[in-house]
What we know:
- By secondary structure, this protein is an all-alpha fold.
- It folds into two domains: 1-182, MFS general substrate transporter like domains (Growth Hormone, Chain: A); 206-425 and 430-434, MFS general substrate transporter like domains (Growth Hormone, Chain: A), CATH 1.20.1250.20.
- Helix content is 79%, strand content 2%.
- The protein has helices at 4-19, 25-36, 40-67, 69-92, 96-125, 130-158, 163-184, 200-215, 218-238, 241-247, 252-278, 284-304, 306-309, 314-346, 351-358, 360-379, 398-421; strands at 384-387, 393-396.
- Strands 1-2 form a two-stranded antiparallel sheet.
Amino acid sequence: MNNKWIRGAIPALLLHCSIGTVYCWSTFSGEISNYIGASKSACGWAFSLAIFFLGMSAAFLGDVVEKNIHKSSLIATICFSVGMVGTGFAILLKSLPLIFLFYGCIMGIGLGTGYLSPVKTLMLWFKDKKGLATGLAVAGFGAAKAIATPVMQFILNKFDNNPAPMFFIMGGVYFVMMFIGHLLLRKPSDWVEQHAEGGIKEFFATLGSNFKTSFSNKTFIGIWLMFYINITCGLALISQEKQIFNTIGLSVGTAAILGTVTAIANAAGRLGFSAWADKLKDRNTIYKLIFILSIGFTACVIFTKGIVNGATVPVLAVICVALLIMVNAGYGGGYSNVPTLLSDHFGMKKISSVHGMCLSAWAIAGLTGNQMATFIVNHVGSAKEITLSNGATTSVNPEGYQTVLYVTCALYVIALIISCVMIPKLNNKEKKEA
């Protein structure tokens, strides 16, 4: 049973395919707001809180993961499952604060520890193909949306769009999956490391030391900023994806199919970009490539006003779809390459702690990415009613979505400059293994 697939890859997929369903929020957010009688924008803060607590729990509990992956994976299993089931009860009670507590805070802690727990283990099992290994697990996080969305929609339909039973059922399923992953997860027997034991005082002392060491390092700050910008831009566009599909005149069925395509692109980017990075002398080259492609596709839509004109000029609609596919792929690729890029620069001994600190960028981006896009859409241009192919009407703001691209393009340029200036080139001899 001491096998890299059984002890590394399979438990990582079980954990990440469970917690990755956080990105299914748009599948049931409307049903939640309708059932409890709150606005969709108010309910949306539950998702933002989940992402915030994901990043911050990873930052705070990185050292716990470093010392004991069994404790951290069990924490992840319990918190995520309790968060899911608790959200179901909160919906039945029609309590938005309780939804914030269970979906945002408790489930968010499960997300952060669950995301971090298998990463170092995978890199230890797959020493020669770290990118492929972490990409495989993180691809599971991205693919979870494509896998779970139709299942969740089926359950919602069975219970007349009452989302509470869905949370009860899926919470039970994910508990079983994650608990099996928790039981299987093991580091290689030949990996020896020592950690100082201690209580709360030592925990906060170590946390402060990790924070100071990380954020006083120019290379770490550069990687943190690249990661933050990539997530912010990704969330800004992905959060408006469905509305952009409606704006450029796609039918409801086509938009649904493309929603699955972009989810697959997200997962493929996580696996493809990270596997590709294994073959490069410098993993930072992947980030440069992601930012250059993102700038190029964004610029094409900006200069052609693709979102504004896409409904009348089909080729521009195709360009808009290509942009969203690229953004999803780059968004995923940015995630999967962070731990391996950090390990190249800082070594494997403290990678969970350093990676956890870097995931704080995800927490901040979770509060700024989609909220930034929403602010722009609400304040630039004007909304108009359109009729969809199924006869339903919806409100869109083409000029607002188009304006979001100006901001994301500028941010991608800044990220490219950071990747060229702040991240030093490393050859194979310079990469830190210990």
